[in-house]
Amino acid sequence: MPRDYYEILGVGRDASPQEVKRAFRLLARELHPDVNAHDPEAEEKFKEAAEAYEVLSDAEQRRTYDAYGHDGLKSGGWAPRSAGFGSIEDIFQAFFGGDAFGFGGGGAAEGGDIGATVEISLEEVLGGAKRELSFEAVSACEHCNGNGAEPGTPIHTCERCGGAGQLRQVTRTAFGQMVRAVVCDKCGGDGKVAETPCEDCAGRGRVAGSRRWDVDIPAGIQDGQQVRISGAGHAGEAGGRAGDLYVEVRVGHDERFQRDGDDLVTLVELAATAAMVGTTVSVETLEGPQEIEVAPGTQPGSESVLRSLGLPRLGGGHRGDQRLIFHVIVPTNLGEEQRRIATELDGTIGPENLEPEDAGGIFSRVRRAFG
């Protein structure tokens, strides 16, 4: 059974074309052979992602897929365009008209971006957090300072490409001949060749390995937002700038609260008798338990507000509020004496005791509270 295209790219079914394209670019960079030499399945994974992008970036094909799935595409005679190409570079050039990985291509090339995910608690949203990330990345070789030559040895202009770093090549595909510029196989796109290649990086000027990075997560961040760290991605080639690190922040679920922007919403359960006569209850807040007074005659779904006990606004500013919604519970399993007392009370209640406080009713109050 083929995998779901949205799952492959890691986007929602309502993702915009720009979000689909960005997700494919990020995934393509992660699967590049220079970073995944240890993963023999990297190229197949890329082709799977290319097929998903091909469908989801085409409005008509996407509508067919959303309505009928993979079977709908097959019945319409669709076949993946990526199947007619021989390498990752061929596929990316066909889709985007160039090399967006940040590897090769001649001259200075920007390094690729890296994506990572961290999880924090709701308490950490209040004051911010710090996480140490460990991830695989391409870095400039320290032994040769990124020039690919053993220290103290000369570097010459590439004779094969004349220093251009690229060669023109004709490729036969299912769509006919395609003339394109390819990375020079002699110099690897640099336009220069080291007389004595660096022993540590084999003349590439960059090495793949594990990297650690401390990430500061700001207070007030929302679930799913990203922290961008400029220059923390893959190293560029021939002096090109490094890519960026994009850290997606996931905020863990806290059963005590429902987040509504900068506000927190808490459901407070009350026995019907306590709601009738009033009481004092302990409510959990991010700063510990707090005693609150419940007024006599509190209605189901009514609210009380604890000012400035919510979450801070991202970038600074005042804190939101904590809104309390009262859920009135009717007691069950009454004993004989309890039933007698309740019956006597019921006999004393008149129309003046049953006038609704809010004409909107409980459902409108709950809808307002939870949006």
Describe this structure in words.
About 3% of the residues have low confidence. The chain is 26% helix and 27% strand. 27% of the residues are buried. The chain is α+β, with helices and mostly antiparallel strands and 371 residues long. A 4-stranded mixed β-sheet has the order 10-11-15-14. A 3-stranded mixed β-sheet has the order 1-9-8.
List the helices and strands and how they pair.
Layout: H1 5-9, H2 17-30, H3 42-56, H4 59-75, H5 88-96, E1 114-120, H6 122-127, E2 129-140, E3 155-157, E4 166-173, E5 176-183, E6 192-194, E7 206-217, E8 226-229, E9 245-251, E10 258-260, E11 263-271, H7 272-277, E12 279-285, E13 288-294, E14 303-306, E15 322-329, H8 336-348, H9 361-370
Parallel strand pairs: 1-9, 11-15
Antiparallel strand pairs: 2-7, 3-6, 4-5, 8-9, 10-11, 12-13, 14-15
